Amino acid sequence: MTKVEIKVENIVASATLGKSVDLPQVAPALEGVEYNLEQFPGLVYKLKEPKTAALIFGSGKLVCTGAKSIENSKKAIHIAVDKMRTLDPDIPHEFEIKVQNIVASANLDKTLNLEAVALDLENTEYEPEQFPGLVYRLGDPKVVLLLFGSGKVVCTGAKTISDAQLGVEKTKERLSELDLL
């Protein structure tokens, strides 16, 4: 398989604390938190290090976005939870963190004729009037790739970095097989 260098752009991870959180009570523990119930049903806590945003909901669910590594997304969730625990000591120390989505980009280093790709490649959607990229859905790994005429590719929906890598490599291989690269 042809190796393609990918760059992780964003990781979305979630955690469930298993207990509801009194948002007005824990908000003061988080410096620079945004809390406006009319606009959003949770707290938005932006961390500088790692540069991420944690969305914290009253249900006890947290969603971390913006991390460039799985390690940093977990670290950001732990930082937010540890700070919340200073005002609510009942927040559990043990909770599961799940990666929900990994977005990665790559460059195939060749321009693509998206109209030809749309005709020959299976499981694609291409409506240039609505979106300049071609949407390609892979079954294994279960990821979605956005292909652009420039040869740039965005892979989304991966749960692991290796799935993102494999999705991009399989796509490049399939395009080569069909003489589209």
TrEMBL record:
Residue windows of the Sequence repeats: 8-84, 99-175
Molecular function as annotated in GO: DNA binding; DNA-binding transcription factor activity
Keyword Repeat: yes
Swiss-Prot/TrEMBL keywords: DNA-binding, Repeat, Transcription, Transcription regulation
Any GO BP annotation: DNA-templated transcription initiation
Origin: domain of life: Archaea
RNA-binding as UniProt keyword: no
Gene3D superfamilies assigned: TATA-Binding Protein (3.30.310.10)
UniProt-listed HAMAP family: TATA_bind_prot_arch
Function as written in the Swiss-Prot or TrEMBL entry: General factor that plays a role in the activation of archaeal genes transcribed by RNA polymerase. Binds specifically to the TATA box promoter element which lies close to the position of transcription initiation.
Family note: Belongs to the TBP family.
UniProt-listed NCBIfam families: PRK00394.1-2 (NF001593), PRK00394.2-6 (NF001601)
Protein name, entry field: TATA-box-binding protein
UniProt source species: Methanobacterium formicicum (strain DSM 3637 / PP1)
Lineage: Archaea, Methanobacteriati, Methanobacteriota, Methanomada group, Methanobacteria
Gene field: tbp
